[in-house]
Amino acid sequence: MNILYVTAYFLPYNSAGTERTLGYINSVRFSKSISLTVLFPLFNNEEFHLKDEANISYIPVRVDYERSSSSFFKRLFIESYTCIKLLRNIIKFSNYRIIVSTPFFPMLFLAPLFCRKSSLILEIRDATWDYFSNSFLRKIIKLAVKITLNRYQKIVTVTSSQLQLLPKEIQKKTYVCENGISKERYNKLQVQVSEKSSINSKNFYYCGTLGTGQNISSIVKFLSQLDDIKIRIRGSGLEFNLIKNFMIENPQNKIELLEYASFNKVIEDYDWADFLIVSLDSRFYSAIPSKLYEYLAAKRKIICFCPPSSAIRTITNNNLFFYDVPNKLSTNDLISIKKLISFKNQNKYNKGLFNKKFIRENSINEFLQKI
Do 90 and 6 contact (CB within 8 A), yes or no? Predict the structure, then answer.
């Protein structure tokens, strides 16, 4: 089987989307029955250096714009332009199964214009149409999405909650393929992160995107009310400077703000940490941050700030502790967290609780067998 995977996220850009693409590559690398071609953009100043392999090839497409913009309309234009530049190459792959991946929203609508339905598969990594705050606009877009989804042969989502957002007739041709963590990263975490039988420090750690959807700046302000704690934040995004300014205005020596680093450095952070932070705004209730799967493999307690309806709450693990979204946190929540961090016994890490479907290559292999 020949597969063309069309994505806006790949190396050298460091993101959850890139990890997803690498998951496909690692899943088929030693396959004797599947060949994979990855079609992806290179934005301004991005360079790509991987070489083709026996059954894996790469097609980078140069896009002469910055990857993102704070302006909604400019971002929409860049995403649409990028999708069209990518999709124009599809004509060369008439005998391939074609998987087009969001969350570049225009991809969903544009791909059927360039490819016949019989070979077209949509991968929904983010149900972005459900995030619009304007209810009228959301209804219009959801109707357009419903019509367009019928133009795909198959659909794959990365959470069961995203599946439930789709119309009943669409669900029948939809698979759930968990995002998960790569086998390589999972194995490294098992070996290099020590298991703590007791907690003598109170170190909080967050690693990932610092955007409005995570609202980590509010979490930092909230947790900084606690005594004798350390907070380490590693990432980039719109809230990076908000946290930096809070640190300047409130010099407490509790907070450490760091930019992205190699995974080996992140492993050191996990070993240092006692508590890992997950936060997601109520708009993104159907999403599960891919970082959560990494957290689950890191043998630490995880404090989740998310809405009651969040898909995160569907994951069962005795190291997960749930609180509401940041803007709804109360004094009682602070007291509850204070009690949690004062409890010195660490829950024993159970490898069996880490579902094998959370290994990314396992879930992708299972999905590829179905198509």
Answer: yes
Interatomic CA distance for residues 43 and 61, integer angstroms: 9
Pairing label, strands 255-258, 301-305:
unpaired
Q: Is 71 exposed, middle or buried (0-12, 13-18, 19+ CB in 10 A)?
A: exposed
The residues, ordered by sequence, that sit 6+ positions from 245 with a Cβ below 8 Å of its Cβ are: none
Identify the residue whose tokens are 């989740």.
Answer: 304
DSSP string, 167-186: -HHHHTTEEE----B-HHHH
d(CA 323, CA 339): 14
Using one digit for the tens of pLDDT, what is the confidence trace for 83-106? 999 999 998 898 899 999 988 889
First to last CA, the chain: 9
Neighbours of 368 (CB within 10 A): 20
- Burial string for 106-115 (b: 16+ CB within 10 Å, else e) reads bbbbbbbebb
What one-character DSSP code corresponds to residue 88?
T
Radius of gyration of the chain (CA): 21
**Residue 263: HSE in the Cβ half-sphere, 13 Å Cα cutoff:** 17
CB 76 within 8 A of CB 43: no
pLDDT average, residue stretch 312-322: 81
In angstroms, how far is CA 112 from the centroid of its own chain?
A: 25
Q: Which residue in 292, 277, 281, 271 sits closest to 354, CA to CA?
A: 292
Token digits of residue 318? 């005795």
Question: Which H helix or E strand runs over 68?
Answer: none
* Model confidence, pTM: 0.84
Cα separation values, 316 from 146, 193, 321, 348, Å: 31, 22, 10, 15
Of the chain, the percentage scoring pLDDT greater than 70 comes to: 95
Q: What angle, rounded to 10 degrees, do the helices at 16-28 and 360-370 form?
A: 60
> Encoding tokens for residue 195?
């298991």
For β-strands 174-176 and 203-209, DSSP reports them as unpaired
Map residue 142 onto helix, strand or coil.
helix
Q: Does residue 348 carry a pLDDT above 60?
A: no
